[in-house]
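HUMAN: Can I see a protein plus its fold?

ASSISTANT:
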Amino acid sequence: MMEKEIFFTIIMPTYNSERTIEKALKSIRDQKFDQNQIEILVIDGGSTDRTIEIAERFGAVIIPNEERVPEAAKRLGYQYAKGTWIIKQDSDEVYVTDSQLMRKKRFIEKNPDVYCLLSDKLLAGKKCGISCAYLNYCGDPFSYIVYNLRGSIVSQNKRYLLRKSKYGNVYRYQKGDPYPIGDGGCTAFHIKKYREWFKERYDSQEYVNLSTQKIIDQTGLAGCIPDDNIYHYSKADLKTYLRKVRFKIHFNLNGTNALGYAAKAECDTSYSRRKWVFVLYALSIVFPAVDAVRMARHNKDCSFLLHFMYTYYVLIVTAVEVLRKVFKKDKGNYSYG
């Protein structure tokens, strides 16, 4: 009997991820979907806890990631993937229902002109910290303004809706429109078509980090199934969240142009202009205060009032990082969470 062709390759970067990886992998194996058509690549940066043991128990293929960072892990995943479609799923991301992979496949079959499929919302997992809901809603104040992140892909992209059906929505974008980011959150895309389009560049760090933007740039289209949501069990107590934000700012200002904000701004010039909008937004004082109250009311969660404080934390840390860079001062120690 011939082996079934792998439809989904799930790429999961890990490093000491035992706290959440079992939930993530179980949510894949619980899917009402032919498991023979699923390949799970756990790309590990040298975990010293039970991450590998857990991954092997769920039948994942383990690939060593000598560089440890998630960006390098995704690059390896693009190279090793045997599936037609890739899903970028972090080790702290969990499917909400057991029918999500089947719904994705049905959408793909009914929309053969769409090569990128985004999840709708990231939902805060239980006991993840005071900043977790905010992190999943918009990431941070800079992302809220520059990338226009507002929780739901469906609600924030209404103006770009091309067509809708019971299988999901298709959105059309023109050059200069702000594209959805699609960095994680179980974003799916057609890896075979991606390799065909971009050939030897498809697994370069730039093209790995900007795969969603590159596909939308190529086709003008992206898909999203309403309420195709993901639980995100990111550790986000206040101290950890602020450390993550500080790392992100440092990375964006000092990383290579193939990574972070610099890469996105090069791909979409509207982001370069909007960084100054963030500065004006923060200096206004009024707008961050109003948005903090509006977010808290909309999400029925008082923790969103911290948006006001987060905005000025980002502004101050950015200013300090810029001065360090200008005067070539020691950049200090940074860690992501």
